[in-house]
Write a structure and sequence with these properties.
The protein has a five-stranded parallel beta sheet, sandwiched between helices. The protein contains five helices and 17 strands. The two termini are 19 Å apart. It is an alpha/beta fold and 231 residues long. The model has no long low-confidence stretch (mean pLDDT 87).
Length: 231
């Protein structure tokens, strides 16, 4: 996972890097942290997963740099850092994950890392399925839906459809701590792909609408509220 820290304060950026490594030690595989204290637009054309960005850089605007990075990284997790709390509303245009105030660093960092841990465990989570005679690891974020027909599971993803065996109940029990949630007796959907919600139905990003079954509404409501809070 590629982490980039952009701040013209050398000591502060090093502090973030050390705290990140200490908190996420053993929780993230292939962790790669780069600190940038000048030439802040260098990474705009590279793959970046998480970016800590100071807003008020010397001769640079951190918000504008994030806009450029997001052109290549649509799932970029952006965490702004600044000693100027008056700029927090300006960041909303790029939908940041969090905002860390330098004068409240310790408390803001702890809350941010807790939320980030949940986000990473879901956005980068993988599941193992058996498709015919082979085992396949799927990224949870790529799953569109899981539908059961008798004892067969049809797993629709952005990269194709896979077929496995087993019950939907067992599949959900193994994966309910991820961004997947059951909404019907024979259907699981991915919260990440919800565009809008009405009282008893959801509108997916592809325009399809699905009803939330009565017995699944409380579980859906709880899980969706957790998702909104942590994102």
């Amino acid at each position: 996972m590629k982490i980039v820290i952009c701040d013209d304060d050398v000591n502060f950026s090093s502090l973030i890097a050390d705290d990140f490594k200490n908190y996420f030690y053993g929780k993230i595989d292939n962790l790669d942290i780069t600190i940038i204290n000048h030439n802040f637009t260098f990474y705009t054309d590279y793959q970046v997963d998480i970016c800590f960005m100071d807003i008020d850089l010397i001769n640079e605007n951190g918000i504008e740099i994030i806009k450029k990075i997001k052109h290549k990284n649509k799932n970029l997790i952006t965490i702004f850092i600044s000693s100027r709390e008056d700029l927090v509303f300006d960041t909303f245009s790029v939908e940041p994950f969090q905002f860390i105030r330098k004068n409240h660093y310790k408390s803001d960092l702890y809350d941010t890392f807790q939320q980030l841990e949940w986000k990473i465990s879901n956005q980068y989570a993988k599941i193992m399925i058996r498709d015919n005679k082979r085992y396949i690891r799927l990224d949870v974020e790529e799953i569109i839906s899981v539908i059961s027909i008798m004892h067969d599971l049809i797993i629709n993803t952005v990269n194709g459809t896979y077929y496995s065996t087993g019950t939907l109940k067992h599949f959900y029990e193994e994966n309910k701590n991820k961004s997947l949630v059951q909404i019907q007796k024979n259907m699981i959907i991915n919260i990440d792909r919800i565009y809008a919600i009405t009282k008893n139905s959801i509108l997916y990003e592809d325009g399809k609408e699905y009803e939330i079954g009565r017995v699944y509404r409380n579980d859906f409501k709880r899980k969706y509220e957790e998702y909104i809070y942590d994102n």
